[in-house]
Every structure is written in C-alpha cells, then in structure tokens.
Specification:
A hairpin with an 8-residue loop joins β9 (372-381) and β10 (390-394). The protein has 18 helices and 18 strands. With 616 residues, the chain is α/β, with parallel strands linked by helices. It has 3 domains: 90-138 and 337-428 and 562-614, FAD/NAD(P)-binding domain, CATH 3.50.50; 187-211 and 429-547; 227-329, no CATH class.
Amino acid sequence: MNKPASPPPSYTSESLPSYSEISPLIPRSRQYSLSDSQYTTNQKKNIGQILLSYISGAIILIFFVIGFYNVILRGILVDGDDPEIQVVNFKVGIIGAGPAGIAAAQGVRDVVSALGRKFKDGNVDVQVEVIIFEEKSRIGGRMVVDGTDGMDIEVEDIASGAFHADLFNIIGGMTDLEKKEDLIVESEDVGMGKVGHFDTNHIITETYRPYATTPWSHYLSLLWKYGSSVWRAPKIPIGTMKSFNTFLRTMNNEHISISSVREIISKMSQQHTYLSFSIPATERLKKNGIGNNYIRDILAPQVRRHTGQSIEQLSDLALSMALEREEMGSHKAVNNGIFQMMMEKSLRNSKATVRLGAKVKQARWEEVTEDYEAWLLELENATNKDEPPTIETLDKLIIATPLNYTELLGQSKDHDSIFNVDITQDIEYQPVYITFFTTSSLLTSTSLKEKSSSPLPSQLLPIIDNTQPLTSPHNTIIELTFLRPLNPSSSPHDQNQPPTSLPPKYLYKLLTSTPLTLTSLITTLAIPENIIERDSWIQWEISYAYPRMWPWFVGDGNGSGDGSGEFQVGKQVWRINSNGAEGVLGGGVYGAWVLGGLVGGVLGWWLGERWRWRGG
C-alpha cells in the first residue's frame, strides 16, 4: 500500500539571507563587505587604469607609424624619386713618389676617411682619386738611382745616414719592434760605429757613433788632444732647444694658431726679440766654448756629411739637427730593402695610383670648360722621349719633390693662380755625386793608417784642406762608407746560411761634391789598386741633394713677407718643400715624411670644407 507523502517543512520566523545589490546571485560576505565610498574609489581606479592603457597604446602606435615611415616608406619614396645624394669627385695629383709624396697621399686618404661619416650624414658621396707622378722606375724619390746594371742598390744605401728606429716606427707603423735582431746597429766586426777623420796624409782622429759607445781609453786620448770641447760638444743643441722649447710652451699656453713657417718665425721674433735658429752656427759654437781644432777636425766633417755645407753657412738649429742625425747613426736592416717595403705598404693603404716613368714638364692653371678651372699637367715619358707628351687634368696639386718652380708653374696663363710664392726665387739646391763600387776585401790604405794591412774604419770623413781648392780630389770627397757585405760567406751576420763558393765581396759608397774618377780616389787615399773591382764603379749625379741653407735673421729679406714659408702657394696647389722650411732646417727623410703627411692632411681638411660648400 502506498505510503502517504511527508508534509512540507514548516515555516520559521528566521529572516531570509541577505544578497548583494550588485549581483543578486552572489551573497555579500559580511567579512568583506564594502561601503559605498570604498566602492566608488575602486571604480575610479579601474577607469584610470583603462585610460592609461589606451593612452600608452596610442603613444606606441604613433612611434610605430613614425618609424615605419622613416625606415620603409621614406626609403621607398626616396628610391623611387631619385635620392638627393650629391656625388663630389676630386682628383688630386702629387708630383714625386718619395717619402714626402707617399706620406701626402696617406695624409689625404686618412683625413677623407675620417670625414666619411660626416659626408654620409650630409647626403654627400665624396670620391677622391689620388695619382702620384714619379719620373724614376720605382718609388723612393731622390733615394733611387736607375741603371745600376744588376747591382742591388736600395734606398737605405743611398740615404744611409738618415735612417733610425723612429723613422721605421712612423713610416712602417712598427710601434713595437718585436724582432730587434732584424735591425742591427753598426757592428765592430766590420768596423761599424767607428769613423775616421783624415787629412791629406793620414787619419787625424777617430770617433764612435753613437758617442756613448766611445771606449774610455779613446775618450781620454780625445780629452788630451781637444780639451773641454770633448764634453761640451754633445751639449751644443742645449741653448738652441731651450729657447725653442720656451717658444713652444708659449704657443701651447696661448693657443696660437700657425699656418706657415714664416708665421712661426714672425711669432717667435715677437716673443724673444730674436730667433733661436737665426743665430749663426759659429756663434753658437763660440757660446758653448768649442775649440777651433775640434770644430775643424770633427764637427765640420760631420756637419758637411749631412748638409753639404760648411758650418759658417748654417744656422745653429741646422747645426744641432745635423749633429743629432750624426749621433743617431744609421740602423742597417738585415733584410735590406725594408724601407722600400714599408713605403709600398703605405702606398697601398693610401689607395693612390702611381705612374712611374712620368716626368712632369709643366703645370698650368686654366679654364677647362665654362665655370671649371683645373691644373693641367704636361707629362713626358721618361723612358721614351720620342713619345708625344700627354695632359692630365687635376683639381688639386701637391708638389712633393724639389723642382724649379719658375719652370714648372711659370707658364700658367692665369698669373694670379700663384699668389703665395715669388716663383722667380726658386729653392737653391746643391748637387751631390754618388758612386757605388765593390771590393774583394775591406779597404786598406798605405798612408792613412799606420798599419796598412788593417782595414780602414767603416766610414771616412775628410778634413777640408784650406791650402787646396774646393774642387781638388781630397776636398771634393764628402764621405766614403762601407755599406755591407754582398755575399753570405763574407757577412758576419749570416751564420745560419749554408756555405757558398762565391768569393767575398763588399759594397762601398762614395759621396763627392764634384765627379771623381776611380784613379783619383786610389791616388788620394793610397788604396791598393787590385782591391777595387773596376767594372763595378758606377756614378750618378743627384741634382737636388742638399737644400742650400743660411742663418735666418728677422728682417734680412730671406723670407719675411715673401710667402716663402707657405705650404699653399696658389689656387689648389700646395708644396711640401719650401724655402721657409728647408732654407733654415734643411732636408731629410724624417722631415719629408712628417711634412708630407701634414700637407696631405691639410688638403684633406680642405676637401671637408669644400663639402660644406657643395653639400652641407
């Protein structure tokens, strides 16, 4: 039987549960109940967060649109509408592939490369083509002689007195010579380091290079003969350099800008009322207490070797520089030709083109087309004079070799193009005659040395004999130097080389102020005739060997106001060797390299200023 259903629950008087007014489905917890004010505050916070999110998103969207336009749309538009990039071409010509010319090419390239980013930012593409014109068959300038008939003559052989470690560091970028054995100093094994000073009869005295290597016994003998001059001589440059350093400090402290050698001289005269390097060398020697016999026997031959002039013709700064080069001596590389290799390396870095065998006859500044003026170089084939001359058009020109400026620039139709130099006053140079010969043994002499069988010092410097004319065989000799052994068997430094059957052979160099025959040399020095190999005797003239120098006084007319110290000498033409520099300081490999790089850098910065005008 079916059971009756249970009755519904009875009602109670308990109140119903309370519900949230926000959501009727969720009960309001008494533990977390919110007041109306708290609820309103939360609502405001939520709205603020939402607004902040919208604002941030809008900002990101704006930056995205801007970036998209700059990177993509602008690139598409520019590519499609022919970009406004200006291509500026400059053609720079350099006359001379010696140290000055190669350094100038490197200087131009270094500065242009440094300004490359600046050009790019200004939408300018600067293309600089550098061409070096060289008359010789290889680079090296005055340090190269052609036609050696198979004799291996390197630039170090010709300029053997001009090389030292600093020069190798600067030119070759060899800041740290890790293999010092690659550069050997003059060795006693072959008489290196010892210099004989001789008169017409015998060797008067011997000195050592560098000075500090002089043995004590020999030093005492010099002291006995020449007195206090022996220890005072090394201090000759001190007075000169003291004044010069004071001037340099003044220039640095006052931030004085100098644009030419002439301006340096002018400023220096204002600071000191005289020029430290305007004092005649003879006056400097007198101030330093150097005796006449020491000057005659030792200093005069040393200075003549480096300058080609007597002490009476020089300034005290030129004297100091010559003696400094004499003291440093000459580092001779085992791997002969290292200087040539370093110049070639620098040439490759400069990306310059070299035209060997190209002799520059004339340079004219002319209007080539309407509104375009340029330098026109007339070139002649140095190896084939029958070929007609060619013309090369250049925007800029650097003269990095000794030339007759009247002949080179004097035919310019626009005479206003040469404005900073009186081209009728060319730099005066003295020639030197250089002779190479080989011997079967080291040279000896039956008269110059007491023991005629012992070898002569590796270098001989003559003492001028005032009783003979300057053109006499004795007085015409400037230097006789043993350079190096040619065969491995005769070289004390090639101990690792295998034995060879070749006979010993030694290379010598002779410098003279006039041509000298082999017979005259043998007679003058009393050299055994059978030692010298007659077939090896080769002689050349180096026309621009020594720039003629003078003591430079303020207001004496030697450059004050004539522009002779300026590097820029006309419209788009610069010169590295100038009366202002070489007329006082002389020439040298080190100075040529430094000045070449300086002038090249000046031209490079000039191109930068040109960019401002054309594209900036």
